[in-house]
Amino acid sequence: MQLSSIHDREQLLRNLHNKRVNELVRQEYLQLYQDVLSDASAVHSFVQLVFMEVLEKVLVEQIAVHTQTSADEAMVISDNDQTVLMYMCGSIMRILKKRYSRISDSEIKVEMVSAFEDKRTTNGCSNFISRYRRWITKKDRGGLMYPSDTFFLLIRELEIVTRKKVLPNALNAKALLKGPLKEAIMEDFMVKLYTKKLFDGLDEIQDVTSKVLEDVLNLFLTIRGFATVRIQRNKLSKASAEAKRTMKNNSSSLRGQLKSKDLNA
Description:
- The chain has 265 residues and is mostly helical.
- Helices cover 73% and strands 0% of the residues.
- Helix 2 (23-33) crosses helix 3 (40-74), helix 4 crosses helix 7 (149-165) and helix 7 packs antiparallel against helix 9 (189-198).
- The longest helix is centred in the last third of the chain and has 44 residues, at 206-249.
């Protein structure tokens, strides 16, 4: 079980709970440990701790597996695309910060967006993500925002999930609908992991963090959707121009045929 979906994770927790409360299982481990622990309540507490340890080990392994899978999938994204994603992160942060600053009682949201920003100097960044900052550094005149590593990795994971769902060779009217894409993104294991890291310690304002995350998703999908449409429109324009050029060269008139023969001579 890869625990890649909410259903898989709920099934695991449900099975674990059934084992913990199953009376037959309880009698079996009481017999197993009766020579070591005479107190039934002590045996029960010990076994519950074992269950929790097993669950923790499973989750740690799952995080390692999904992290490696995400890293492998990120290899498909070129350095140039990741540089664009880094710039997109800064754009999303600036748009949200400006939007929230205009709304009363949004101080918490402004602080959250500020937490997305990397407070370190660009010269002090030496990790693998720093090489994707070159476009921001080149265009920066003092007003651009540098995202933190976690926020960049979150946006990159959104890109990975979107690429799985939006295939360039299979685009249709429903391919860029936000609803299905948001649902697929929110169920992704790594998106949940980066979101938890990003909003660490803010569980008491879960409704606010959910709203900020939804705004991030909407902005990302909007920017991503316009970019996809622009690429397809440019391809169609180029194909149309080539088709017109071909039709012009293949003219059925006598003058067109003579001109074609002269060009091919």
